[in-house]
Amino acid sequence: MSKFTIRKIYLYLFSLVGLILIIMGSVGLINLGLQLTFFKDALEYEYGYVQLPYPYFLDDLKFDETINKIELTNEQKQSLERWKNDYENYKQKAEKIGYIPYIADTLTRSIALLIVGIPIYIYHWGVIKREHNKEENTD
Protein backbone atom coordinates (compact mmCIF):
# COMPACT_ATOMS: atom_id res chain seq x y z
CA MET A 1 0.00 0.00 0.00
CA SER A 2 1.46 3.33 -1.00
CA LYS A 3 1.70 6.27 1.34
CA PHE A 4 0.45 9.70 0.38
CA THR A 5 3.31 12.11 0.74
CA ILE A 6 3.43 15.81 0.05
CA ARG A 7 5.24 14.99 -3.18
CA LYS A 8 2.42 12.71 -4.35
CA ILE A 9 -0.22 15.26 -3.39
CA TYR A 10 1.72 17.88 -5.36
CA LEU A 11 2.00 15.60 -8.41
CA TYR A 12 -1.69 14.69 -8.39
CA LEU A 13 -2.73 18.29 -7.79
CA PHE A 14 -0.67 19.59 -10.72
CA SER A 15 -1.87 16.75 -12.95
CA LEU A 16 -5.39 17.85 -12.10
CA VAL A 17 -4.53 21.50 -12.84
CA GLY A 18 -3.06 20.50 -16.21
CA LEU A 19 -6.14 18.43 -17.01
CA ILE A 20 -8.44 21.33 -16.10
CA LEU A 21 -6.47 23.70 -18.34
CA ILE A 22 -6.70 21.20 -21.21
CA ILE A 23 -10.45 20.86 -20.70
CA MET A 24 -10.95 24.64 -20.57
CA GLY A 25 -8.91 25.16 -23.75
CA SER A 26 -10.73 22.37 -25.55
CA VAL A 27 -14.13 23.68 -24.52
CA GLY A 28 -13.16 27.15 -25.77
CA LEU A 29 -12.11 25.76 -29.15
CA ILE A 30 -15.25 23.64 -29.47
CA ASN A 31 -17.42 26.61 -28.47
CA LEU A 32 -15.75 28.83 -31.07
CA GLY A 33 -16.10 26.15 -33.72
CA LEU A 34 -19.80 25.72 -33.00
CA GLN A 35 -20.39 29.47 -33.06
CA LEU A 36 -18.61 29.83 -36.39
CA THR A 37 -20.41 26.93 -38.05
CA PHE A 38 -23.85 26.28 -36.60
CA PHE A 39 -24.73 29.18 -34.31
CA LYS A 40 -23.77 32.27 -36.30
CA ASP A 41 -26.87 34.15 -35.13
CA ALA A 42 -25.82 33.82 -31.51
CA LEU A 43 -22.36 35.07 -32.41
CA GLU A 44 -23.81 38.06 -34.23
CA TYR A 45 -26.24 38.85 -31.41
CA GLU A 46 -23.67 38.71 -28.65
CA TYR A 47 -20.53 40.00 -30.35
CA GLY A 48 -21.74 42.09 -33.28
CA TYR A 49 -20.17 45.45 -33.81
CA VAL A 50 -21.63 48.41 -31.94
CA GLN A 51 -23.06 51.12 -34.10
CA LEU A 52 -22.54 54.71 -33.20
CA PRO A 53 -25.71 56.59 -32.32
CA TYR A 54 -27.34 58.18 -35.34
CA PRO A 55 -29.52 61.31 -35.12
CA TYR A 56 -33.02 59.87 -35.32
CA PHE A 57 -34.52 62.94 -36.97
CA LEU A 58 -32.38 62.19 -40.02
CA ASP A 59 -34.07 58.81 -40.56
CA ASP A 60 -37.15 60.37 -42.16
CA LEU A 61 -35.27 63.05 -44.06
CA LYS A 62 -32.67 62.97 -46.76
CA PHE A 63 -29.44 64.17 -45.21
CA ASP A 64 -28.24 66.33 -48.09
CA GLU A 65 -31.59 68.10 -48.50
CA THR A 66 -32.08 68.57 -44.75
CA ILE A 67 -28.69 70.12 -44.17
CA ASN A 68 -29.48 72.84 -46.71
CA LYS A 69 -32.98 73.55 -45.33
CA ILE A 70 -32.00 73.90 -41.68
CA GLU A 71 -30.61 77.24 -40.73
CA LEU A 72 -27.07 76.45 -39.74
CA THR A 73 -23.85 78.33 -39.98
CA ASN A 74 -21.34 77.15 -42.57
CA GLU A 75 -19.15 75.82 -39.77
CA GLN A 76 -22.05 73.78 -38.38
CA LYS A 77 -22.87 72.43 -41.85
CA GLN A 78 -19.23 71.41 -42.35
CA SER A 79 -19.21 69.80 -38.93
CA LEU A 80 -22.34 67.80 -39.79
CA GLU A 81 -20.79 66.72 -43.10
CA ARG A 82 -17.61 65.59 -41.32
CA TRP A 83 -19.70 63.69 -38.80
CA LYS A 84 -21.63 61.98 -41.61
CA ASN A 85 -18.38 60.95 -43.32
CA ASP A 86 -16.90 59.72 -40.05
CA TYR A 87 -20.06 57.74 -39.31
CA GLU A 88 -20.07 56.08 -42.73
CA ASN A 89 -16.34 55.25 -42.45
CA TYR A 90 -16.84 53.76 -38.99
CA LYS A 91 -19.80 51.72 -40.18
CA GLN A 92 -17.85 50.28 -43.13
CA LYS A 93 -14.81 49.50 -40.96
CA ALA A 94 -16.94 47.83 -38.28
CA GLU A 95 -18.69 45.68 -40.88
CA LYS A 96 -15.34 44.60 -42.36
CA ILE A 97 -13.82 43.73 -39.00
CA GLY A 98 -16.95 41.94 -37.77
CA TYR A 99 -16.14 39.25 -35.22
CA ILE A 100 -12.42 39.01 -35.91
CA PRO A 101 -11.39 40.53 -32.55
CA TYR A 102 -13.66 38.11 -30.65
CA ILE A 103 -12.48 35.13 -32.70
CA ALA A 104 -8.82 36.06 -32.26
CA ASP A 105 -9.25 36.58 -28.52
CA THR A 106 -11.04 33.28 -27.98
CA LEU A 107 -8.65 31.36 -30.21
CA THR A 108 -5.51 32.72 -28.56
CA ARG A 109 -6.88 32.13 -25.06
CA SER A 110 -7.87 28.54 -25.86
CA ILE A 111 -4.56 27.73 -27.52
CA ALA A 112 -2.64 29.30 -24.62
CA LEU A 113 -4.57 27.13 -22.15
CA LEU A 114 -3.67 24.05 -24.19
CA ILE A 115 -0.02 25.07 -24.53
CA VAL A 116 0.28 25.47 -20.77
CA GLY A 117 -1.99 22.59 -19.73
CA ILE A 118 -0.69 19.78 -21.93
CA PRO A 119 2.96 19.88 -20.73
CA ILE A 120 1.92 20.28 -17.09
CA TYR A 121 -0.38 17.27 -17.32
CA ILE A 122 1.97 15.07 -19.35
CA TYR A 123 4.99 15.74 -17.13
CA HIS A 124 3.26 15.29 -13.78
CA TRP A 125 1.19 12.30 -14.84
CA GLY A 126 4.32 10.72 -16.32
CA VAL A 127 6.15 11.13 -13.00
CA ILE A 128 3.18 9.58 -11.18
CA LYS A 129 3.14 6.60 -13.55
CA ARG A 130 6.92 6.06 -13.24
CA GLU A 131 6.74 6.17 -9.44
CA HIS A 132 3.75 3.86 -9.42
CA ASN A 133 5.55 1.35 -11.66
CA LYS A 134 8.67 1.64 -9.50
CA GLU A 135 6.61 0.94 -6.34
CA GLU A 136 4.98 -2.10 -7.96
CA ASN A 137 8.37 -3.53 -8.93
CA THR A 138 9.82 -3.06 -5.44
CA ASP A 139 6.85 -4.65 -3.65
Please explain how this structure is put together.
The chain is an all-alpha fold and 139 residues long. It folds into two domains: 1-48 and 99-139; 51-97, no CATH class. It is built from five helices and no strands. The chain has helices spanning 6-37, 40-47, 63-69, 74-97, 100-138. Helix 1 crosses helix 2 and helix 1 runs antiparallel to helix 5. The radius of gyration is 29 Å and the shape is rod-shaped. It starts with 5 loop residues before the first helix and ends with a helix. The model has no long low-confidence stretch (mean pLDDT 80).
Please give the structural blueprint:
Blueprint (H helix, E strand, L loop, with lengths): L5 H32 L2 H8 L15 H7 L4 H24 L2 H39 L1
Helix pairs in contact: 1-2, 1-5
Short note summarizing the structure:
This protein has 139 residues and is an all-alpha fold.
Number of helices: 5
Q: Pairing-aware structural class of the strands and helices?
A: mainly alpha
Radius of gyration: 29 Å
What profile does the largest beta sheet have?
none
Q: How many β-strand runs?
A: 0
Please give the oligomerization state of what you see. Answer: single chain
The portion of residues assigned to helices is: over 70%
Mean pLDDT across every amino acid position: 80
Strand/helix succession = HHHHH
Tally of discrete structural domains? 2
Strand content: under 5%
